[in-house]
Amino acid sequence: MTNLTQRIHIIGEALPNLPWQNKPEGYEFPVWRHSDNPVIKRNPVKGVARIFNSAVVPYEGRFVGVFRAETTNGRPHLHLGWSEDGLSWQIEEERINFVDEQGESFQPNYAYDPRVVRVEDTYYVIWCTDFYGAAIGFASTKDFQTFTRLENPFLPFNRNGVLFPRKINDKFLMLSRPSDSGHTPFGDVFVSESPDLVHWGKHRHVMAKGGQGWWQAVKIGGGPAPIETSEGWLMFYHGVTGTCNGLVYSMGAVILDRDEPSRVKYRASTFVLTPEEWYEERGFVANVVFPCATLHDAGTGRIAIYYGAADTYVGVAYTTVEEIVQYTIDHHEEIGDDSTIGKM
Amino acid sequence: MTNLTQRIHIIGEALPNLPWQNKPEGYEFPVWRHSDNPVIKRNPVKGVARIFNSAVVPYEGRFVGVFRAETTNGRPHLHLGWSEDGLSWQIEEERINFVDEQGESFQPNYAYDPRVVRVEDTYYVIWCTDFYGAAIGFASTKDFQTFTRLENPFLPFNRNGVLFPRKINDKFLMLSRPSDSGHTPFGDVFVSESPDLVHWGKHRHVMAKGGQGWWQAVKIGGGPAPIETSEGWLMFYHGVTGTCNGLVYSMGAVILDRDEPSRVKYRASTFVLTPEEWYEERGFVANVVFPCATLHDAGTGRIAIYYGAADTYVGVAYTTVEEIVQYTIDHHEEIGDDSTIGKM
User: Which residue positions does the secretion signal occupy (chains A, B) (predicted)?
Assistant: First the structure.
């Protein structure tokens, strides 16, 4: 085991006002829950039954969220929400009005599992959209008022699109998880690059499901935007196992090479969070923790993780860059073709 | 019904030496079989049990084929073959040796259902390859001696990649059929564009399975490279129906808009060839006709279609541009979202 604790740090901006609680005394795991979870409960706004699997970013001194809002007719759409502290949220009653590049309304038939990633001065929303089946939808905004849809990056069927927060070798990079159009019983994570956010190529395999443990045996998928650290891109992701009564979603941690993110440097063999609390075990879909966003502070190394719980609630969990990166290094397991590099 | 017979013609080069037989007296359908089918029979060369679903192009006064060769260990690879008349073939015993852009050997784990399309002075081979599951493989050659692999255009899972034989609006265009990694029980045809054959985007839906008839109810997929005609891009494709004893593959015909090929102009409601003969009904996979290539002569409007039969043989069938285009116009049916244009 390598002890890198003294030099592990986040490369990025300070965010001293992110939500934070210290690790409880005697708690032995690398990720700990907010004491007052869930932070978004059932029926959070008129017409919305549940909010979960959602994205949060800092914006002009407060926080804005793009939320997967399961409307009371059972179809998911994306709603904005605002918060001063990242914990107490005002959710908008109307869904986001996406427009096309001519400014005409261009609403997705449905929209779920959003991620929001800032690259330079633009915020990109990535979600699962209907493109003759489940596919990755893509839009940009600079002000959280006008959301302009961009070309769908990939053919169907695909989910869990995650953009990197900066260009690498002058190219945009997006993770995704090719799937089928249903409750996909398989899935690995790939990365693709683009010079212009319109055309994508140089697709590479990043991570395989599987490993010695069974918690990620069925499929895996990207989570929040990767966090740049001194050891590489830290990414939380979801790993899924199967049981006689359905799937169970846990959270994993992986560190990808900074310059060549298709290369896995370290990948924790264990989950770092798994359904245990009532709001994770019980709900519309039992036994789901599904991370979609983080807030993180380069000054202190603190990380707040936003995750969907049981397809019903939003939970927050905490860690520090030192703790989670060291844990991932110490519990590294090479899985499947994770170490393959360069070739298609 | 429109009578366009007087002005329907192929836009392209003359190929007076293509294989040809006139339509049999009294035959009522728009596509007729070569009288001495199958033109490639079982065990065509040492180590190869069956050849089918293969591509043929004219090259330096004769014909060259890139053949799906099912080796005697049951795994498909691509073999070259040569012919003076397009009917009698010398198949090479060794598979094609693909190299990467540095010239190092880079063989696919398996390779099947090739198409070969010339764009300007380069021949592109497109096939189904193993990229952590079924995906579209891509290579180029100028001399049929060195085959250099290009970037896989799309993420898995996908099959039936078909390049257009010229750029449209200065972009390369490729049809494909997103799928799963097995015996996919669904599938529509999409088109994607590329400025550089590396990055692909602006994905559009082209054709849906379905329609009033049942012969293409399960899935469809592109066939030979589209033929440019005065009425639009003529494309033969495969349509699949399901039975209690498995799938049945027939051949359909469609005409796509010349400038915007995501738009279907005419699509025949009926198959234009369906398994009837012993070599189509019987074999490794019963009841398959699967077109992958055409030869066509702009001078006479003659078209020779190469199709796989029962995953065992290569068959040839004939039509003329006048006959098949008129048939497709006369039997037009709008299916599903075929007429959708422009939007994702």
Answer: none
